[in-house]
Design a protein that fits this description.
By secondary structure, the chain is α+β, with helices and mostly antiparallel strands. The chain is 72% helix and 8% strand.
Amino acid sequence: MKILFLIREGLAGFKRARLSAVITIITVMLSLSLIGIFGIIVQNLSDTFQKLYTHIRLEIFVDPSITPDQIDSLASALLAMNVFENITFISPEKALQEFEAEFGDISNLLDTNPLPPSFRVTLPGGYRRLQDIESIVKKIEAMEEVDEVQYQKTIISLMNKYFLLGVIVASAVGATIFLISTLLIFNTIRLTIHARKTLISIMRLVGATNFLIKGPFVIEGIFQGLIGSLLACGLLWLGIDFVRTAFFPELKIPLYYFAFLIATGTLLGLTGSYISIGKYLR
């Protein structure tokens, strides 16, 4: 029965101090939305980098005069290296089809097909260091039938150089945002309870126990954190849906982000109210 009483009193706190409750909920919503936005940006950038790392593709251009037997021989040599996840032969005709699919029909501008045959190979995700990739490229270029090997050397080099730095900076910025948001929520809850210190004093004078005084405020804090986090989730969902529709169709937000925001908002509401009310009961 005490629990039901505390819940009723906690919900009644919304009616007694509607403005402060609304301010707290809005603070929680905006703070968690900021955390969520930062997390989504970092998550999608990380996914993009990881996708590039796990799909490092080499374009191996071969001599246009190569014979079918030489193509089979080169394909066997590439398979024998045991380092490729996928090997695909691209004939000049197929290369022209891919080019026209991307840039438009150019058949009326050309008398002959200028595109050479090639092999398109994919390295598995374990290959991230530029030195390892360059070692494989040198072995391929040493093959007699190979003219040139192309890959995203500049991008991989930049990622090797700045990825770790980016992780450190993102972690520092994320921790700072989380800390500021937490302090903001705590201070808002503290000010809300401070505005009702007279009520707390009266309850102590009439003999209410610390449990009965603290309970409704803690319940109220939990509900404020829960409502604020749910609103933040709704705001993020609408924002992501808009951005996906208008700009980036591949933008995604993992479902566990919503669970994290709800748990964080509820926990901050509980902790903030518990600590704040404890100040007036010492």
